[in-house]
Amino acid sequence: MTLAELRKVSIRRQLKIHFKLRNGMECIVTENGLAQVPALKAVPDFNLEEELAAASEFLVEPVAIPDKKSDKKNPPIPRTVSREELGRMAAASPSTGAPVEHDDE
To answer: What are the C-alpha distances in Å from 77 to residues 40, 41, 72, 104?
Structure first.
């Protein structure tokens, strides 16, 4: 799984996906598809694609959608998933839709 695929899953399923970097930091891919390393204070000395390739476990956190009436007593629960399960989520994730055909006649 590449970082681009992880970003697509996070956007389509409205998830925050966390994974640990080898240096102990954490990367969070937001529901907007942004990869963030909150503890990063300077130019990184690592490649995020390589760190993702080394990650074997991910924390998947559903994002509460403000439009829906969320059940405050039962908020979405983050869960830990393996690389394989995340890959299946990515494969099952619907694409943005079929291209729209225009009849110009």
So the answer is: 26, 30, 12, 48
